[in-house]
Design goal:
The complex is a heterotrimer of chains A (135), B (491) and C (320).
Chain A lengths: L3 H17 L4 H24 L9 H21 L1 H16 L4 H22 L14
Chain B lengths: L1 H11 L2 H19 L4 H9 L8 H26 L8 H12 L3 H26 L3 H7 L2 H18 L4 H15 L2 E2 L6 E2 L13 H20 L13 H12 L1 H16 L5 H15 L12 H16 L1 H7 L5 H12 L6 H6 L1 H30 L6 H18 L5 H18 L4 H24 L11 H23 L1
Antiparallel strand pairs in B: 1-2
Helix pairs in contact in B: 1-18, 2-3, 2-4, 2-18, 3-4, 3-16, 4-5, 4-6, 4-14, 4-16, 4-18, 5-6, 5-14, 6-11, 6-12, 6-14, 6-18, 8-9, 8-13, 8-21, 8-22, 9-21, 10-19, 10-20, 12-13, 12-14, 13-14, 13-21, 19-20
Chain C lengths: L4 H9 L2 H11 L5 E5 L6 H16 L6 E5 L6 H9 L6 E7 L1 H8 L11 E5 L6 E6 L7 H10 L2 E4 L6 H13 L3 E4 L5 H10 L4 E5 H9 L3 E6 L26 E6 L5 H16 L1 H9 L9 H22 L1
Parallel strand pairs in C: 1-2, 1-3, 6-7, 6-8
Antiparallel strand pairs in C: 3-10, 4-10, 5-8, 5-9
Helix pairs in contact in C: 1-2, 3-10
Classes of the chains: A mainly alpha (135), B mainly alpha (491), C alpha/beta (320).
Chain lengths: 135, 491, 320
């Protein structure tokens, strides 16, 4: 676990380096130099054996990340005016264990605030989502 | 020259102009606090509304917006770790930890006063150097800009003491991300994986919203509770303490203001660099560098002083040559054009009174916004007591929608989410975000300027030794590299 | 204006014919996206932002015309986005020629064909270019420059390799018989012109409108103009240089819509543009930065595209 970030970075850097070598010389000069330096630094870091001090529960972290990813995906697929209230209501109800009424009210207030600010005041067309956008 | 300053001030001190200044200031303060909105969007919104106004009134409105946005950005940076604009991200580093300790009022008070003083010092500096603005802009060409980028990266890397290795890794990662997109020099698209969104590279503001605001919300939802755990410490006394701290650390204020003024005046560098550089140099100069990132009040004062100082000096390349220092300046240029003022050397000759009026408007808005910020500091600091189960979804929703609103691109939402996860992992595994952000901002500029220098000199690197400003910058780089070794030996 | 989701959903289910009918009779009912494939703040961007408010004034319904800067890929992304947008009149874009032909040639996956775009109007008369050096440059005349070219390549500051300025520089230098080396990578016209003033390179080739204010403030010196009859006293022009072809190097700024735009929508937009270009305030503002907004039509715009394409075709090998 303690080497996971270093290994992940190393893999990313190798992919980056391999891609960089496909570009013409002037375009690849800097990326290649930085990638090699990065690999060197990662190697030293792994040898130093440094670990993070604080260890929150892994399950909690995955949950938090999953909620964020799900929200982002919802926005992309069904748009802002449906995605935001769905996320807030679900988050308050299933993560926050609030009542349905409280969850729905919070969702309604937040969504109204966002609509008022962005759509009315700023006159932005709020994204309608991949499934609901006109084709 | 004095008569021009006074004419500019006199033009501003009319009822109509003051009213529009106040309107602009209120809008700027409000929009500055919302991640993703910022000065550029506020100005873009107001520009068509200025259609019927005379130029001076339009400039009063624009000055009001631009002068107040930083204070708005500071409020959300401190309370929610959500930078209202890119430069405010530096304030998150120590401002939000202070809020977590129940000292949001202290941080806001310091931010407001540093903002105001930084803006005043920036104004005085700009008024003094405006007559030689053109010559200043011309001093910095590709060789100087490359060395400046290197200097910036070294300053930031050496500031992350105790975790310099991880700081360098984060910086290298930031550089790698900076190389994504269309390369201006060669015309080659790099590392886009066929995704059209990435042609422009990773958009900075959505990335920062993710790295700071969303990462913080992930962290908060994992840990639970509220941002601050001790309600008793959230009190009005703190705001006044913040003011006192700013005056106590007058050197930090002066340093930040001067950095903001100088960096803001250099075309193509931008305000984000100013605030992070000011922060990093303050860490370097501190006797207690390990306390930074954990709620050191100087970590709030330094970037805040720089942010407003750079707002005035950003006008220099914009007005002198029509080179906008950032998106906000670019939108501002559109407003100028709409009112028959074309940025360029002639503007510095034909519209001097209007320019001085604008500078006064910026300063006035900055000071007034800081005062308003002080007034709302205490009620706003109560936000830190809200339970995370409520705060996290609401802030996350506003952050992601704000990210979309930057340029109405849904790809921004994905970037914010990805950087949110990345930011959380960086917190979790102790990689400093500071170096990554600065590398992200400076990376492509450093590369571009290096290649342009190579083209200018036909590959002869001695060009760096034949230009005075380059020699100064090289000396600075050497000093910065040697200083940690000397300090280490002394200990 | 808010997006009328329910209405559009209905229109979609009614099929393409229904879509066309709804689009024609009601156009416009929501914000129009005006793509600018350049960074904010340049002359191109400024011109669009001057015209956009006037366009809002002359459209049959009150909607916002929202300038949308998409400078990525040298502008290729923006033009590609314009090309692939729905042809409903809600996405229009400004395109500069002949640089966009270079982009088309390189494609980079953008996949657009400028000959298929529905052209709506031209933003002003085509602009000539000129060759200039910084005021402190040791080069005082065009002959000095020519002499220098005999000893080493002249370094010109320019935009990235897919811009109209780049095209003008390469072709112009070729016609003038100058050995050249380009310093590319500058972000916009202000940037590379200032680069020349600063001495990054020896000279710059840029539109006359970009150079004139700098010449008036004595920051830059013009050594030659590509105008057939120069507007700068004492400066050689295309005729006096004996290079009439220089005056074919023109910067054209046109407005287009995606291919397949319904005729009625095209007519509405073209008419609104024509009135915008004749609006006294718009004309006056454009004049302040030296752009002459003469009345024009969609057909004129299409004709200018063909001329520019012919010019590019002639120089394609050199530019690619």
């Amino acid at each position: 676990m303690k080497y996971m970030p270093s290994v992940a970075l190393a893999i990313l850097t190798v992919v980056f380096l391999a891609t960089a070598y496909t570009y013409p010389s002037q375009a690849r000069a800097f990326p290649v130099a930085v990638a090699w330096v990065m690999l060197f630094l990662i190697a030293i870091d792994m040898l130093s054996g440094k670990t993070a001090e604080d260890r929150p529960p892994v399950a909690g972290q995955f949950r938090a990340v999953a909620w964020l990813a799900a929200f982002a995906l919802t926005l992309v697929l069904i748009g802002i005016l449906y995605g935001v209230p769905l996320y807030i209501a679900a988050s308050l109800r299933f993560r926050g264990h609030r009542s349905w009424i409280a969850s729905l009210m919070a969702a309604a207030i937040t969504t109204s605030g966002i609509w008022l600010l962005f759509a009315v005041v700023l006159r932005l067309d709020l994204y309608q989502g991949y499934f609901l956008s006109p084709r | 020259m004095l008569h021009l300053w006074l004419s500019g001030l006199g033009g501003l001190l009319q009822a109509r102009e003051l009213l529009f200044l106040a309107i602009g200031m209120t809008i700027g303060l409000f929009f500055g606090a919302i991640p993703g909105i910022g000065g550029a969007t506020a100005l873009a919104l107001l520009t068509p509304l200025t259609y019927g106004l005379d130029p001076f009134t339009a400039l009063a409105l624009a000055g009001g917006v631009m002068g107040a946005v930083p204070m708005g950005g500071s409020i959300s940076a401190i309370l929610l770790n959500a930078p209202g604009s890119a430069p405010s991200a530096a304030t998150c580093l120590d401002g939000h930890p202070l809020a977590q300790q129940g000292k949001a009022g202290l941080a806001l008070g310091a931010a407001a006063s540093a903002n105001a003083i930084g803006g005043i010092i920036g104004t005085i500096s700009v008024l003094a150097i405006l007559p030689i603005a053109k010559d200043l802009v011309l001093l910095f060409g590709p060789p100087e800009l490359f060395l400046l980028a290197v200097l910036g990266l070294i300053i930031v890397a050496t500031a992350s003491r105790g975790k310099m290795l991880r700081g360098l890794i984060a910086g290298a990662l930031g550089l790698m991300i900076a190389f994504i997109g269309y390369n201006d020099v060669t015309g080659v698209l790099r590392f886009t994986a066929g995704i059209a969104y990435l042609w422009d590279g990773v958009h900075l503001v959505p990335a920062l919203i993710g790295l700071f605001a969303v990462a913080e919300m992930i962290d908060l939802s994992v840990k639970g509770g509220a941002i601050t755990r001790d309600a008793k410490t959230v009190g009005i006394v703190s705001v006044t303490s913040g003011l006192i701290e700013t005056f106590r650390h007058w050197r930090t204020v002066l340093r930040g203001s001067l950095i903001g003024t100088v960096v803001g005046a250099i075309p193509g560098v931008g305000g984000t660099v100013a605030s992070f550089l000011s922060y990093s140099l303050t860490v370097q100069a501190s006797k207690d560098p390990e306390s930074f990132g954990k709620g050191n009040i100087q970590g709030v004062i330094a970037p805040e002083a720089a942010i407003n100082a750079k707002d005035c000096s950003c006008l220099i390349p914009t007005l002198a040559f029509g080179i906008p220092g950032g998106v906000e300046m670019a939108v501002f240029m559109g407003l100028l054009v709409l009112h028959g003022m074309q940025p360029g050397p002639l503007m510095l000759i034909d519209h001097q009174v209007e320019i001085y009026g604008l500078i006064w408007a910026l300063t006035g808005a900055c000071v007034l916004a800081s005062l308003l910020g002080l007034l709302v500091a205490h009620p706003l600091s109560r936000i830190t007591l809200i339970d995370s189960q409520i705060l996290v979804p609401v802030v996350t929703a506003v952050a992601l929608v704000g990210s979309y609103a930057v340029d109405r691109n849904i790809g921004n939402v994905v970037v914010t989410a990805v950087f949110g996860i990345l930011g959380y992992l960086m917190i979790r595994f102790d990689y400093p975000r500071l170096t990554m952000v600065v590398a992200l901002v400076l990376g492509s500029a450093a590369e571009r300027n290096f290649h342009q220098t190579t083209m200018m000199s036909d590959g002869n690197l001695s060009i760096y030794l034949h230009r005075n400003v380059c020699l100064v910058l090289l000396a600075g780089i050497v000093v910065l590299l040697i200083a940690p070794l000397v300090r280490g030996r002394r200990k | 204006m808010k997006t009328r989701v329910t209405r559009r959903s209905f229109v979609l289910t009614a099929g393409p014919a229904g879509l066309l009918l709804a689009a024609d009779s009601d156009f416009p009912v929501r914000n129009i996206d005006f793509i600018i494939p350049k960074s904010p703040g340049g002359g191109f961007d400024n011109l669009v932002r001057v015209i956009a408010p006037a366009l809002e004034k002359y459209l049959p319904r009150k909607v916002n015309v929202v300038p949308d800067n998409i400078p990525a890929g040298g502008g290729g992304k923006g033009i590609g986005q314009l090309y692939r947008a729905r042809p409903d009149g809600y996405t229009i874009g400004a395109v500069d020629l002949p640089g966009s032909f270079i982009l088309q040639e390189k494609q980079n996956g953008a996949g657009f064909d400028l000959n298929k775009i529905t052209w709506l109007c031209a933003m002003g008369q085509p602009e000539y270019f000129c060759l200039a050096v910084g005021a402190h440059s040791p080069l005082k005349t065009f002959d000095n420059l020519k002499a220098l070219s005999g000893t080493r390549p002249i370094k010109f500051t320019s935009s990235g390799p897919e811009g109209t300025a780049y095209a003008a520089t390469v072709v112009g230098a070729n016609i003038l018989g100058l050995r050249t080396r380009l310093i590319t990578g500058y972000k916009g016209s202000s940037d590379f012109v200032v680069g020349a003033i600063r001495g990054d390179g020896d000279a710059v080739i840029a539109p006359v409108t970009s150079i004139r204010p700098l010449e008036q403030s004595r920051t830059i010196r013009i050594l030659a103009t590509f105008e057939p009859h120069g507007s700068f006293p004492g400066v050689p022009d295309a005729t006096t240089l004996g290079k009439a072809e220089l005056s074919r190097i023109l910067l054209d700024r046109l407005v287009g819509a995606p291919p397949g735009l319904p005729a009625a929508v095209k007519s509405t937009l073209s008419a609104a543009f024509a009135k915008s270009m004749a609006d006294p305030r718009t004309v006056g503002l454009a004049k302040k930065f030296d752009v002459d907004l003469a009345p024009n039509s969609a057909d004129l715009a299409a004709a200018r595209v063909r001329e520019s394409a012919a010019f590019f075709g002639q120089w394609k090998k050199v530019l690619s």
